[in-house]
Amino acid sequence: MSPSLTPSELSRYSRHIMLPEMGVEGQQALKAASVLIVGAGGLGSPLCLYLAAAGIGTLGIIDNDTVDETNLQRQILYNMDDIGLSKVDCATSRLRKLNPYINIQPYHTALSSQNALDIIQPYDLVIDGTDNFPTRYLVNDACVLLNKPNVYGSIFRFEGQATVFNYSKGPCYRCLYPAPPPPGLVPSCAEGGVLGILPAIIASIQATEAIKIITGIGTTLTGRLLIYEALDMKFDELTIVRDQHCCLCGEQPTIKGLTNYQQFCGIADTPIDVTYGEIASQELKTLIDTNTAPTIIDVREPYEREICHIEGSQHIPMQQISNHLQEFDPNQELLFYCKLGGRSAKVCQLFTDNGYQRVTNLKGGIMAWANEIDTTLTQY
C-alpha cells in the first residue's frame, strides 16, 4: 500500500499532482520509492537536488570524495564554505533543508566489489553518476545481478549521453560496451575539461527517467542511447540492442558475481614495470635548486599552460610531440609533465620506445608540484 501524503506534502507537490499522468498516485509512488545515486559530483549534484525536490522517499548517496574548489564550476550542490568537507555530508545537510519530508541515506565510502551488492540491494533503482570505467562496469554488473534498473549518464567536454540499462528486458552496459577502452585512451574530465552546464542537462534527463520508471508513465530510454552535443545544440539517438550472447545479461551468462574491475579495465592494483623513470616533486625541486635538472617539457594544451607552469620548462603539446622526437639527443635527460601525470607518462613511453634512454615522468604532474612545492600556482 502506497504511503499517504500529508496536507503539507499535498501542497508542496501540487504542481506534480496537477499532471493527469502523475496525480496523487504518482506522487505516492515517488514517496514510496528508494533511489541510490552513485557519485555526488557533476551528475550527482543536480540529481540529488531534483530527486529530493521531487519527493523521492529514500535517497541514498554514495561518495568518498571531498569538495574541491575546481568542483564548484559544475557541482552546484556545494559552495565555498564546503571546500575540504565530505561531499556526502554537505549533500545530506543541504537536501534535508530542501525537503525535510524525505529520508537521506549517506554512504561515506567508494562503491566496490565488496560492498556493492549489499548497498544496492535495498533500493528500487540506481542512478550512475560516476566518471570512470571500473565503477560503471561495477554498477552495471551489480544492477543486473540484483535485477535493478540502472539509469546511466556520462559527460565529457561538450557531449553527454544518457540511457536506461537493465529495465523492461532491455540491454545492459556490457551490451553497448562489451570491453573497456585501453587505459588512458579516454581522458577524464579533469584532463579533458567539461562545460559546467552539461552535467545539469544530462542529470535532468537521468532524473526524468528515474521518475518515469517509478511512476510507470511515458516511454523510457531503455534500448536507446541519447547523445547531446552542446556546441551544436543537437540531440541524436542510437538504438542499443540487447546482446543475446552478452556475458552478463545474455541467454547463457558467464558472469555470476562481481570481480576486480580495476584489473578488468586494465588498471593494475600495483605499479606496472615501465621503461622510463618517475620522479617526485621534491626530488625535481632539489635538482632545479642545484642546477642539475634535466630538460623539462610541458606536454599540456596551450590554455593549460596559461593557467600555470613550471618556470624554465619548454612547451610541446602532447598531440605535437611525435613531430619533435628528432630534435632531442637520445642520451639527453628529459623530464615530461602534464596536469596529473597520465599524458606525460604516455609521452615518456613514446620516447623510450624510440630509443631514448634517460626519460622521466613527473609523478602527479603539475598539480602535485603546486601542492607540494609552489603553492602560489593556480590549480585547476
How would you characterize the overall build of this protein?
Helix 14 (342-353) links the parallel strand 12 (334-337) and strand 13. 38% of the residues are buried. The chain folds into 2 domains: 33-264, 3-Layer(aba) Sandwich (Rossmann fold); 277-372, Rhodanese-like domain (Oxidized Rhodanese, domain 1, 3-Layer(aba) Sandwich), CATH 3.40.250.10. Helix 4 (44-54) runs parallel beside helix 10. The model has no long low-confidence stretch (mean pLDDT 93). The protein is elongated. It is 33% helix and 16% strand. The longest helix has 18 residues, at 198-215. An 8-stranded mixed beta sheet has the order 3-2-1-4-5-6-7-8, with helices on both faces. A 5-stranded parallel beta sheet has the order 9-13-12-10-11. The chain is α/β, with parallel strands linked by helices and 380 residues long. The chain has 15 helices and 13 strands.
Question: In a few lines, what is going on in this structure?
Answer:
By secondary structure, the protein is α/β, with parallel strands linked by helices.
Distance between the termini: 50 Å
SSE order in H/E notation?
Answer: HHHEHEHEHEHEEHHHEEHEHEHEEHEH
Class from helix and strand fractions: alpha/beta
As for the number of domains, it is 2
Q: Order of strands across the widest beta sheet?
A: 3-2-1-4-5-6-7-8
How many strand elements?
Answer: 13
The fourth-level CATH homologous superfamily of the largest domain is: NAD(P)-binding Rossmann-like Domain
Round the mean pLDDT to the nearest integer and report it.
Answer: 93
CATH class of the largest domain: Alpha Beta
Number of helices: 15
- Per the principal axes of the C-alpha atoms, what is the gross shape? elongated
